[in-house]
């Protein structure tokens, strides 16, 4: 239980920093070149994702010895693409009821709605990310045996014997 609480705290810290990168870039793209919130949100999400991957795999989750790094990256990428889809749907829903020209005619309201949607999307995607990464990417607790029937172990074992281009 202590390990889980520690992971949640670290995940929260990494998440807050990633969120600040994400929302900061999104707001700059909306206020500067007046990109719509869905496009701005996608760009900012992808930029913050790079930080999130590096920080999460270094400080939050422990590498599974029974999984190749390429598979770890693939699982992270696929779960992140799903997270991006969730993010985009929530961002779109947040401003869908505004008129199409709201970004220029109702800029303050548009920005407020976009930010409320972004905060909502961040919470939903953070829960999704933690659950998927904990389930598939995190090594078992020290001293706890690997469950050979778990999806994570079977995926990892497969990845070790199927290395593309000789990757590790």
Q: What portion of residues belong to β-strands?
A: under 5%
Unreliable runs: none
Number of strands: 0
The total count of helices amounts to: 6
State the end-to-end distance.
31 Å
- Structural classification: mainly alpha
N-to-C order of helices and strands:
HHHHHH
Radius of gyration: 18 Å
What would the average pLDDT be, to the nearest integer? 90
Tell me the helix content: over 70%
Reported for the largest beta sheet, the result is: none
Globally, the shape reads elongated
Please give the domain count.
1
Main location: membrane
Protein name: GtrA family protein
Domain GtrA/DPMS transmembrane: 10-136
Transmembrane segments: 12-32, 38-61, 73-98, 110-131
Explain the layout of strands and helices.
Elements: H1 2-31, H2 37-60, H3 69-95, H4 102-105, H5 107-136, H6 151-161
Description:
The protein has 168 residues and is mostly helical. The protein has one domain (2-166). The chain is built from 6 helices and no strands. The protein has helices at 2-31, 37-60, 69-95, 102-105, 107-136, 151-161. The radius of gyration is 18 Å and the shape is elongated. The two termini are 31 Å apart. The mean pLDDT is 90.
Observed structural traits:
mainly alpha; 6 helices; 168 residues; 75% helix; single chain
Summarize the structure.
With 168 residues, the chain is mainly alpha-helical. The protein has six helices and no strands.
């Amino acid at each position: 239980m202590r390990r889980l609480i520690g992971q949640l705290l670290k995940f929260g810290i990494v998440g807050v920093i990633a969120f600040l990168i994400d929302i900061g870039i999104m707001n700059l793209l909306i206020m500067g070149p007046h990109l719509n919130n869905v496009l701005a949100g996608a760009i900012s999400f992808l930029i913050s994702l790079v930080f999130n991957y590096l920080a999460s795999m270094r400080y939050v989750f422990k590498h599974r010895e029974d999984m190749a790094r390429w598979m770890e990256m693939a699982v992270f990428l696929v779960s992140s693409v799903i997270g991006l889809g969730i993010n985009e749907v929530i961002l779109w829903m947040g401003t869908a009821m505004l008129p199409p020209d709201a970004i220029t005619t109702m800029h303050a309201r548009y920005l407020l709605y976009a930010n409320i949607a972004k905060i909502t999307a961040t919470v939903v995607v953070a829960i999704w990310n933690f659950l998927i990464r904990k389930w598939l990417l995190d090594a078992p607790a020290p001293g706890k045996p690997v469950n050979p029937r778990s999806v994570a172990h079977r995926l990892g074992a497969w990845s070790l014997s199927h290395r593309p281009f000789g990757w590790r």
